Amino acid sequence: MIVTLGGGLGRDICYRALATRDARFDGRFYTAVVSTGIYCRPICPARTPKLEHCLFVPTAAAAHQLGFRSCLRCRPELAPGVAAWHGTANTVSRALALIAEGGWGEGGADELAARLGVGARHLRRLFDEHVGATPVSVAQAQRLLFAKKLLAETSLTMTEIALAAGFGSVRRFNDAFKKTYARAPTTLRGSAPRSGVGIALRLSFVPPFDWSAMIDFLGARAIAGVESVKGGVYRRRFSIGAALGTVRVEKVGDALGLVIRTSDVRAIGAVVARVRCVFDVDSDLRAIDAHLSTDRALRPLVRARPGIRVPGAWDAFELAVRAVLGQQVSVRAATTLAGRIAKDGTFPDAHALARADLSASGLTRARQQTLTSLSRAVAEDARVLDSRESLMAL
Fold this sequence. Notes:
- A hairpin with a 2-residue loop joins β6 and β7.
- α3 crosses α6 and α7 packs across α8.
- It contains 17 helices and 9 strands.
- The strands form 2 sheets. The chain has a 5-stranded antiparallel sheet. Strands 3-1-2-4 form a 4-stranded mixed sheet.
- It is α+β, with helices and mostly antiparallel strands.
- The two termini are about 25 Å apart.
- Helix content is about 45%, strand content about 10%.
């Protein structure tokens, strides 16, 4: 079987990266070893297999679909999320983001395709071309790898892990895990102690990361009562569906350390996905900086400030509201207005803001009407703010 990696990666390049354990390629491909039935990251400390035993695939989902088990030494679930965007079409990138946020519903690929505005057959073709796996395989791999991460890093119960990873029941979780790893999930249980502090997780990224620039940007725009930045630590209160909670984020080496507290463990996956977006975790800064450095004017700027990332937003609706509030006013004024809208300690969703009385918010009448119209439109159809750019090209 021949798998196209894209991005200029061939078998020889991949094998050299594997043999030298080159961290620059971590997350850009995985090595499936046909003699062992296991797939690994390029940085795996295990003995390098012979080239004829190696199959290089672009994603962990592709390896899962081919029947390979994830390595217990290098833990593919910890790889930076570069493969989630590298060389993919916009539609696929959006689909991967939705799956990561828990957007894989009972309707499966058909429901996902409908949310993206494409046909299910076309979506499967795009996934096969850019990801090397079907949407179903990606969703299953996402659940299993996230469950494996929770097993190793947290003290959540099996029921909590099953729900957090998107399985409808512990039985389904156990069946899928045993089928994939040929062992019970309890055998991979870590030693994290149970505590009331919260659920601690780490998100790896490709360095460098200009944490000061990121945290200063977010701090200047923190919404009072919702967000705060102090001592290099970002904190936020959130509301996702019926789940309420808080998340704490700080930089720990080449990873972000998260502490999540929530009323419903099923929101953990969505929280992690949103943190990845806010902090631009999945960008390959080495590749970006190298490209920008080819420009004579940008080269000295990149060298002076390597690792500057593009801050993201908690969700598309919040970003749209902030954009309306920020028109023709200062950052400080816009942040103050956002704080008045989020008076209950969490940023309102479209349904809540559509019903809200904004007369005492200090907004002009025109801006109140704009926010109300925006909120009603999103409340009626959440896809209003979905990315459609790829439909023109495809």
